[in-house]
Amino acid sequence: MANYLQLASTLHASQNKTSFHVFTSSSSTSQISPTYPHIHMTMSAGSSSLNLSSFGTQKRDMNLKVAHVAARLMPPTHRVTDDVTNAIAPPLPPLPRTQKEETKSNGGRLAAWTSIKQERWEGELQVEGDIPLWLRGTYLRNGPGLWHMGDYHFRHLFDGYATLVKLHFEDGRLVAGHRQLESDAYRAAKKNRKICYREFSETPKANNFLAYIGDIASLFSGASLTDNANTGVVKLGDGRVVCLTETQKGSIIINPNTLETLGKFEFEDPFGGLLLHSAHPIVTENEFLTLIPDLVHPGYLAVRMEPGSNGRRVIGRVNCRGGPTPGWVHSFPVTENYIIVPEMPLRYCVRNLLRAEPTPLYKFEWHPQSRAFLHVMCRASGRLVATVDVPLFVTFHFINAYEETDGDGNVTAIIADCCEHNADTSILDKLRLNNLRSSIGQDVLPNARVGRFIIPMDGTTYGRLEAALDPEEHGRGMDMCSINPSYLGKPYRYAYACGARRPCNFPNTLTKIDLEEKTAKNWYEEAAIPSEPFFVARPGATEEDDGVVISIVSGKHGEGYAVVLDGSTFEEIARAKFPYGLPYGLHGCWIPMD
Ligand SMILES: CC(=O)/C=C/C=C(C)/C=C/C1=C(C)CCCC1(C)C
Ligand SMILES: CC(/C=C/C=O)=C\C=C\C=O
Ligand SMILES: [Fe+2]
């Protein structure tokens, strides 16, 4: 389907006035670029127009579809054309295969915020300790590991080009490697030595005014949005392995053994025009569930895709209760029977989407007056069964959710847990690379907790939010969580996450949280930054924490290593050093060997 924003948008230029219409339900007027102070974006319910009042040199009559205009007006360096997007990366250097063939070091600096130095590497790592023989398969981790291109340096952690890391465990041995994801955004940046697509916080610089208009037009057609799938990686029920980010076009299939980029995951359904989706779908052997924010008619679509299919079907839709746009939906939880749709007061902001320079909250805006809600949708019927007003919250990551029932099996409440940043949006700014690099050792990480929502299912319209355990247990840092996947949507006891050993500027511990005992056990290594602890269950296990926890650590002196912890004791049982430093990474998945 053609993007309906694109269809709804036309560019008119007459005597001395050009208007660019965008349908939205917001209501505001603002200047959108300091470079073009004469441009104002006027938003009113149903339609917005961009008034280019002093743009008097263009005296042609135009009434063209935005994408068409974008293609004509963008200068070659900004045009998303076939020759840019199909650019072939230069041939790779020969692949070193052993640890002896040392790769470039990063000069002894903390590895976490230092870009990866080479496109790819693969080799066997020497293991200290014992990897359980039952651990057979590949752990894949994705994340933004390359934060510069030529002289251009990204500003935010989330901007970096996707770097995939693999740890293949077999017979107690470990073969590891990494490789850059060959997204169109990465290839175009490499070819042109500058960014060519809109990333999380960065926008390619328009060379002139016409290019600027083209950029705005191509934003609404989706053409300028990044496909840099740097957030997560999932294995679908049919075996395909897909890297993901928040843009739908950033869904890219890889080979989990070679980490080679195989091509776009093309959604064959009418929802591509909505451009965005949750970076964290719920993926099981049987389904792929996700939420798609609708910025035009503020709300969310819950959709489902079967293994083997590329088409999503609508389960249901929820309209926002607050406004003016949907809340950021980086992740969401499910129970056995329900999908929980979070409506966070940190909302997408159409005006900020259009700005060339990052704002303090990037593409988002904090709307406390619009309040916060959780919606409960029946997975089978798509019916909205509850909406509760909850205290203001800020979360990237929901941990899990489950139903509480009475003696007759009636659902009385839903419990939904998340890594909650005390309704404080400042964490987004703390994740700027400058901050991360300059405040090492300072105690500037904002407090966070395991936020537990209690959603009554008796028609009451208010839900509660409280800390599931004393945040001091995990140093008041909390993010990047995993659980035993067999407990998805069900009552559960353990969560694994990154906590804090203070003073710190970023979560720096691996933490096992016992939600029953309300305690945490922490793994810590001086000045190292571990990534998301990922739980892998032992085949045949009956205890929830019978398994291992895998994490990749960016070390203090530029080194990188993998650690394996016992899921039950949370003691380290094995570690293996990479011959080079690894940048911080975000989310992973497990591909078991057949
Ligand atoms: C790495 C991570 O956790 C989040 C990444 C988020 C991204 C790449 C968001 C990208 C976006 C755009 C390119 C434009 C539209 C808004 C938004 C979803 C922020
Ligand atoms: C790394 C992070 C937050 C850390 C703060 O405590 C959030 C990552 C979000 C995207 O996946
Ligand atoms: Fe995430």
UniProtKB/TrEMBL annotation:
Q: Does the keyword Oxidoreductase apply?
A: yes
GO BP annotations, alphabetical order? carotene catabolic process
**Annotated binding of Fe cation, by residue:** H280, H330, H397, H587
Cofactor annotation comment: Binds 1 Fe(2+) ion per subunit.
Q: Which UniProt keywords apply?
A: Dioxygenase, Iron, Metal-binding, Oxidoreductase
User: Molecular function terms in GO for this entry?
Assistant: carotenoid dioxygenase activity; metal ion binding
Q: Does the keyword Nucleotide-binding apply?
A: no
Region of interest called Disordered, as start-end residue ranges on this chain: 83-108
Name by which UniProt lists this protein: Carotenoid cleavage dioxygenase 8
InterPro entries reported in the protein's UniProt record: Carotenoid_Oase
Requisite cofactors: Fe(2+)
Q: Which family does it belong to?
A: Belongs to the carotenoid oxygenase family.
Can you name a GO cellular component term? chloroplast
What is the organism of origin for this protein? Carnegiea gigantea
